[in-house]
């Protein structure tokens, strides 16, 4: 079929006029219609790219980008890299003559962050948009921003096989949507009659058997969907080993294959062909001649793993919508059949649709990319679908912890970090952050690789990064025998659980993942096998960025420093040696896993943090994959987050003020200890005063007489305002106590401190003299006797005296040169008040005669006049 006959050409004139009219367009047409290969050519041929501009076609998959470029170059009769080129993570075939450039998602976003006006780009095409990759979402938002600001001439096209266009249409408005139904033939769906457990009957064997069965009834090529490279190679082996299928050619198809192997898979053959592919063949690529699809129903999917705080690729069940797309591959050129390797009942339980990545991935990497483009307020970025605010906060917190972003002013950053608060939205990218951006991996690993380069240990760090990606291959809770065998083969370990894991992986790798050898040490051979390609991938990325990936002797401490660089947000301090309890940065607590080998280190970093429900329903935070850390490294690697502070505290045991030195990493107090330093006297006095005011230290000299003195001062201020005496308030009392305490450190010394000298200082010499004159402590009466005066906060001063002391005295008393009347409290011989009066003359005449008889009878030995 000539490309001109493809269904998409029905839309050609509509596409051209819509792009001209709005500069925006949504195209929806089934897989195989010709969207990816033809639309870029239409743009070029109709002059929509201007004289020399290029169209950038965004592809979610590297394999698709390369094969599409190759195909389009062939159709246009040009050499790959000439008019038509591609650019993917580790490879690029472009030149300055290139007009149609297929790229993977990260490439475009990075180009936007380096050149915000996208010079030389006339159109951007977002292909396979229904997959809703995070980078696709973000790049589209950025493209719209660019179109609305500096580049109104930029053309934006969004294409997909299936699309819930409603929300997208509103987002892109004003924008037209063009739909083509395409042409397809019916596909019969078959399910397995009963559930198969792939742990017992391997998925590749089941798939090969289904191929054999279908081959007897159906002509044409077959397409088998498997989740990843390993399952694909096992399936190819099974098919090639089958007698019933010996007349077929069978090819693997996935992104890790060399280009010529990829080309072989899509080429045409005279004999029947079986292609075993990842979901790249689901909608990105069309393989001609397929009439039967065998679908494992599985795919490797990226998802945020809260245990490790990274995105991981795990094998998961695809959604019903994906399964329908896969089935559709069988009906391109003739009626077809699709065998699903699961039951119809199970099918009903599958999710109808995949969640968009923005809802299921860690956002750290894109947030960093946005900040690199100067978009600091990421919450208000024009997201097509807003991410969970918590996910954004978590991403910013992690980036701050990695040192990739920070507030513009270092001091405000510092304060917030000490409080353990997530940095606010206005943080910007740092120099470290910019360097990290060069590595197309999760920021944790970018940070680790940077640290590794500094320390000459890129290789082991790349391996560690690979080890944290997949699922754990070292089985837990193994028998005694296995435990012993492990110790024999792997040795003891006290520095990092990673080192044990690395040795276990080398062991498995050397044994070529032999099931027998792996079982002996409790190693999940298949999981261990997946580490190798990831390791290679990290090495390639590192090498591409100019890091030294050579084999060399490395210090264990250097490798451990790199773990710290990547996981500083998982730093934990053991609370005591007797238990496994730990305290972590960001106010968390947890328990170190029993099976960790790192039981002696007081400081560690846990690469995995998981929450497990305890027996009583409580949530326990479990720390595993631990690495011992030494404190000086914290300051070395994160100088802004490590602080030594001094402080002064009142030690309740020693009952004295002591100096303390505290060392903190962010909000985690690493150690607080008493130092020999002299406490500053003013701080010591303040702390002792607090103790005195709380009643925990008693000032012996602060007695009733002192209280009377204070009352006298206060009454003097009240009665004789012209003397300008300041009254002593409660706050002033604290100041006075502080002055008493000044110069002392211990409760004992404070207790015996004299008080009056400090109090006297409250008044001037003149005021002091006036105080004793105006408000004397004692009053000399007409009979020569001196009696004590009592001052209270209310009412007049009171003179108390026994009746016998008052004989011969008459009239009223005053103090303060006659201005303050005094009340007289008349006491019985037992010192009990019997009468209060302000005029004695009156007392002798009125009251005294009435009580005299009674009193003289009761106290006969006293004189009764
Ligand atoms: P769409 O993007 O709508 O799914 P494509 O533009 O990818 O469609 O493909 C349109 C048609 O071009 C396919 O049906 C197929 O016939 C042909 N084609 C595309 N790529 C290749 C290739 N690498 N080799 C052979 N034919 C191809
Ligand atoms: Mg396509």
Automatic annotation (TrEMBL):
Residues 209-374 form the Helicase C-terminal domain. CDD domains: DEXHc_RHA-like, SF2_C_RHA. GO terms for molecular function: ATP binding; helicase activity; hydrolase activity; nucleic acid binding. The keyword Metal-binding does not apply. Keywords: ATP-binding, Helicase, Hydrolase, Nucleotide-binding. Residues 16-181 form the Helicase ATP-binding domain. InterPro entries: DEAD/DEAH_box_helicase_dom, Helicase-assoc_dom, Helicase_ATP-bd, Helicase_C-like, HrpB, P-loop_NTPase, RNA_helicase_ATP-dep_HrpB_C. The keyword Nucleotide-binding applies. SUPFAM superfamilies: P-loop containing nucleoside triphosphate hydrolases (SSF52540). It comes from the Bacteria. Residues 409-429 are annotated as: Disordered. NCBIfam families: DEAH_box_HrpB. This is Helicase ATP-dependent domain protein.
């Amino acid at each position: 079929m000539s490309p001109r006959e493809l269904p998409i050409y029905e839309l050609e004139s509509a596409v051209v006029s819509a792009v001209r009219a709005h500069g925006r367009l949504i195209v929806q047409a089934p897989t195989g219609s010709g969207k990816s290969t033809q639309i870029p050519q239409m743009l070029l041929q109709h002059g929509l790219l201007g004289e020399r501009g290029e169209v950038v076609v965004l592809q979610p998959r590297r394999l698709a980008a390369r094969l599409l470029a190759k195909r389009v170059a062939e159709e246009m009769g040009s050499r790959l890299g000439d008019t038509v080129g591609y650019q993917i993570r580790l490879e690029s075939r472009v030149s300055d003559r290139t007009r149609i450039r297929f790229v993977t998602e990260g490439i475009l976003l990075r180009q936007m962050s380096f050149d915000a006006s996208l010079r030389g780009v006339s159109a951007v095409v977002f292909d396979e948009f229904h997959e809703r990759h995070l980078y696709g979402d973000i790049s589209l938002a950025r493209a719209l921003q660019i179109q609305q600001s500096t580049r109104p001439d930029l053309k934006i096209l969004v294409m997909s096989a299936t699309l819930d266009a409603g929300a997208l249409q509103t987002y892109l408005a004003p924008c037209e949507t063009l739909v083509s139904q395409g042409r397809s033939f019916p596909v019969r769906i078959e399910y397995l009659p009963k559930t198969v457990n792939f742990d017992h009957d391997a998925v590749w064997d089941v798939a090969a058997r289904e191929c054999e069965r279908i081959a007897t009834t159906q002509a044409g090529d077959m397409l088998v969907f498997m989740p990843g490279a390993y399952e694909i190679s096992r399936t190819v082996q099974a098919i090639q080993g089958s007698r019933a299928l010996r007349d077929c050619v069978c090819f693997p198809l996935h992104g890790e294959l060399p280009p010529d192997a990829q080309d072989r898979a899509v080429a045409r053959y005279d004999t029947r062909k079986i292609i075993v592919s990842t979901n790249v063949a689901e909608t990105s690529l069309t393989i001609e001649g397929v009439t039967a699809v065998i679908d494992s129903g599985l795919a490797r999917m990226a998802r945020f793993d809260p245990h490790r705080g990274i995105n991981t690729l795990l094998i998961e069940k695809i959604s019903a919508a994906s399964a329908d797309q896969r089935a559709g591959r069988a009906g391109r050129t003739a009626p077809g059949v699709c065998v699903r390797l699961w039951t119809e009942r199970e099918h009903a339980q599958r999710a109808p649709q995949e969640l968009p990545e923005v809802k299921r991935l860690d956002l750290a990497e894109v947030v960093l990319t946005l900040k690199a483009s100067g978009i600091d307020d990421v919450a208000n970025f024009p997201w097509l679908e807003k991410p969970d605010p918590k996910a954004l906060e978590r991403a910013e917190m992690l980036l701050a912890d990695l040192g990739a972003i920070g507030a513009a002013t270092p001091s405000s950053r510092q304060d917030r970090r000490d409080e353990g608060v997530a940095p606010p939205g206005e943080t910007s990218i740092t120099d470290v952050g910019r360097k990290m951006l060069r590595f197309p991996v999760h920021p944790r690993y970018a940070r680790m690789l940077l640290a590794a380069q500094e320390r000459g240990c890129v290789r082991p760090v790349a391996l560690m990064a690979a080890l944290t990606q997949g699922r754990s291959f070292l089985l837990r809770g193994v028998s005694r025998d296995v435990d012993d065998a492990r110790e024999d083969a792997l040795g003891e370990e006290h520095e990092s659980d990673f080192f044990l894991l690395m040795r276990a992986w080398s062991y498995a790798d050397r044994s070529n993942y032999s099931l027998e050898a792996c079982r002996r040490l409790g190693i999940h051979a298949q999981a261990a096998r997946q580490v190798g390609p990831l390791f290679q991938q990290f090495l390639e990325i590192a090498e591409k960025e100019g890091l030294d990936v050579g084999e060399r002797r490395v210090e264990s401490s250097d490798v451990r420093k790199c773990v710290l660089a990547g996981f500083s947000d998982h730093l934990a301090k053991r609370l005591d040696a007797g238990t496994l309890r730990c305290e972590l940065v960001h106010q968390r607590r947890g328990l170190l896993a029993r099976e960790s080998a790192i039981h002696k280190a007081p400081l560690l970093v846990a690469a995995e943090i998981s929450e497990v429900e305890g027996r009583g329903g409580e949530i326990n935070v479990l720390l595993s994959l631990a690495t011992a850390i030494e404190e000086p490294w914290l300051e070395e690697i994160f100088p802004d987050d490590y602080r030594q502070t001094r402080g002064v505290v009142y030690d309740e045991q020693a009952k004295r003020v002591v100096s303390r030195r505290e060392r903190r990493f962010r909000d985690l107090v690493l150690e607080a200890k008493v130092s020999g330093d002299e406490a500053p006297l003013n701080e010591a006095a303040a702390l002792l005063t607090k103790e005195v005011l709380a009643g925990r230290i008693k000032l012996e000299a602060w007695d009733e007489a002192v209280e009377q003195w204070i009352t006298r001062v206060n009454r003097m201020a009240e009665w004789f305002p012209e003397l300008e005496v300041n009254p002593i308030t409660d706050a002033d009392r604290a100041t006075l106590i502080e002055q008493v305490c000044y110069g002392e450190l211990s409760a004992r010394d404070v207790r015996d401190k004299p008080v009056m000298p400090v109090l006297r200082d409250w008044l001037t010499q003149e005021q002091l003299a006036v105080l004793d004159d105006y408000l004397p402590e004692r009053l000399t009466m007409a009979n020569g006797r001196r009696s004590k005066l009592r001052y209270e906060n209310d009412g007049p001063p009171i003179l108390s005296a026994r009746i016998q002391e008052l004989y011969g005295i008459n009239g009223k008393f005053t103090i303060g040169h006659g201005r303050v009347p005094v009340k007289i409290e008349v006491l019985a011989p037992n010192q009990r008040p019997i009468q209060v009066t302000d005029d004695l003359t009156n007392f002798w005449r009125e009251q005294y005669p009435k009580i005299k008889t009674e009193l003289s009878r009761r106290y006969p030995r006293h004189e009764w006049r």
